[in-house]
Amino acid sequence: MQEQDRATDAVPLALVEVADGIAWVSLNRPDKRNAMNPALNAYMHEVLDAVEADERVGVMVLTGAGEAFSAGMDLKEYFRETEEKGHLAVRRAQRDAYGWWRRLRWLEKPTIAMVNGWCFGGAFSPLFACDLAFAAEDAQFGLSEINWGIIPGGNVTKVVADLLGQRDALYYIMTGETFDGRRAAAVGLVNESVPADALRGRVAEVAKVLLEKNPATLKAAKDAFKRVVEMPFDTAEDYLVVRQESLAFLDKTEGRKAGIRQFIDDKSYKPGLASYRR
C-alpha cells in the first residue's frame, strides 16, 4: 500500500478495541459520517488481517465512530477524484472496496454489524457481509443512488435482492426513501432493532453466546449456509455431507465427540438448551 493510503498514528481510519474476546472495529471518519474512501477501503484489509490473526479475538463487531455506521461511498474521493485518475485507478478502488467486503463475508471468525446510525448505499455491502446485524431503532437506512443518477452497485442490488422481498427491495431502490432501524428489522435487513442506548449491550450479549460455541464449527456452519442458498437441493445435500466430514478433520479439539460424550455418558448438558463444555 502506498504511504498516502495509510492511516496516520494521529487519525487511524479504523479503531480496534479488543475486550473479553470481542474485537470492536469502528470505521473512523466521523466528520464524513464514515463514508468509505479509497484510503479507508485499503486500510480495512490490514484491519481484517489483524483481527483474523489475533488469538484474543473470537468475534468481530463492525460499527462506525460518531453518529453513523457508514454513509456509503465517499462521492468526492471514491467517485469523482478516482475517476479523474483514469480507468486503472477506478479498478484499483473497486478491488480494495469489494475485496474487503468479500474478506469480511468469509472471515474466519463470526461477525456482527452494529448499525448505530446512518447506513446508506454502499454501506449495505459490509452490513450484508457480516453474519449477523443489529441496529438502533432510530438508525437511518437508505438507497440514495437513484437520487443522483446511478443504480445501487458494489453488489448492493444483490444484497437487497437476497435479504428483502421483491416489493420492499424495489420500493427502496426506486424511491430512495429512507427507513429506520425498526423497519430494517421488519424487512429482514437486520436481525433486530433495539433502543440506541441498549445497542452495544445487546450486541455484546449475542457475541458472548457465539464465544461459547466451537469456533471451527461456527466457521463451517456460516460458510455452509452462504454456499447452499444458491445450490439446488441435491447438490446442497452432497455438499453438506462433505462439509461435515471436512469439519471432523479440521476441528483438532474433536468437538463432535466431546459433545456426544458429555450428553450421552456424562449427562452434563442438553444440546437443545446449551453448548457442550469446551
Automatic annotation (TrEMBL):
The keyword Acyltransferase appears for this protein: no
CDD domains named among the record's database cross-references: crotonase-like
Gene Ontology molecular function terms on file: feruloyl-CoA hydratase/lyase activity
UniProt-listed Enzyme Commission number(s): 4.1.2.61
Matches recorded under InterPro entries: ClpP/crotonase-like_dom_sf (IPR029045), Enoyl-CoA_hydra/iso (IPR001753), Enoyl-CoA_Hydratase/Isomerase (IPR051683)
One Pfam short name: ECH_1
Keywords assigned: Lyase
Gene3D superfamilies: 2-enoyl-CoA Hydratase, Chain A, domain 1, 6.10.250.2850
Coiled coil regions, renumbered to chain: none
Annotated family: Belongs to the enoyl-CoA hydratase/isomerase family.
NCBIfam families per record: PRK09120.1
Name under which the protein is recorded: p-hydroxycinnamoyl CoA hydratase/lyase
